[in-house]
Amino acid sequence: MSGTGEPLIEPGQLAVALAEPDPPTLLDVRWRLAGPPGRDDYAAGHLPGAVFVDLDTALCGPPGAAGRHPLPDPAALQAALRAAGVRAGHPVVVYDGGDGMSAARAWWTLRWAGHREVRLLHGGWPAWLAAGLPTATDVPTPPPGDVTVRPGALPVLDADAAARLAAADSGVLLDVRAAPRYRGETEPIDPVAGHVPGAVNLPAPEYVTEGRFPTAQALRERFTAAGVTDGAPVGAYCGSGVTAAQAVLALHLAGRPDAALYVGSWSHWVADPARPVATGETPRR
Q: Which residues, 6 or more positions from 223, have their beta carbon under 8 angstroms from its beta carbon?
């Protein structure tokens, strides 16, 4: 099984791969923004052989001025991945509770760390159950992995780069939060409501439905309607870089592997009161 081409894998395909003599490393990254912890779901049942990896503590750095889900320390990430059995050059499959968000952030993090052989279980845990495939409750102890984290294999935006992209005549910075948050009408999590000036709103449900992506052509059409054009730079942000990682995955599926993630996203942007905040609508280009 190769993870360097198609980023998604369907349940039936994964079941075949898991039956091979050297199956992919399987990471359960179920997570919720506001509890209960994903580890509880894992304990109740998971894919056979899956190892639980916590998004908040293993795949992201500690929350703070860099945002609620900043980039992880490379050494800490490497230790966590090796403990989960991730091996250099060996395929990894990540899955979550079905919305695809934490799995997409895990996919993005491994790709950013230089591990190309990673795919996301399309539809996550619910799709596996719906296919009638086996589950387990035992907690495996994988042999330690030997992956080496080499940061920077996927492009990232800091606040200055995000601002430049949003203000550029060519290129688009996508804000994939719900429209009322983008417009500044409500903000349930962060201390300031609004958006990066010049950013274009494309709420996640417009390109993914309950964790499942449409065809590449449909994705291209939706991103084109938001102003994403061939050859022009594109980046994405959300509240803290989780939903936006799913947008980057969707852009990969649409043929834009150069799409950049503003990892700190809105939670980082508003940490500096000097940064400008826009409200209302920004017309799509």
A: 202, 207, 234, 250, 251, 254, 256
What pLDDT digit, counting tens, does each position of 11-42 carry? Answer: 999 999 999 999 999 999 999 987 778 999 99
What mean pLDDT is predicted for residues 200-222? 96
Would you name the residues annotated as active-site residues? 238
203-207: Cβ within 8 A, 24+ apart:
203/176, 203/177, 203/178, 203/179, 204/176, 204/177, 204/238, 204/243, 204/246, 204/247, 207/247, 207/250
* Tokens 């065809």, residue located: 215
Answer yes or no: is pLDDT of 4 > 50: no
Residues 6+ apart with CB under 8 A from 138: none
Mean pLDDT over 36-57 rounds to 95
Neighbours of 68 (CB within 10 A): 22
> pLDDT tens, 234-276?
999 999 999 999 999 999 999 999 999 999 999 999 999 999 9
Token pair listed for 239: 């509240």
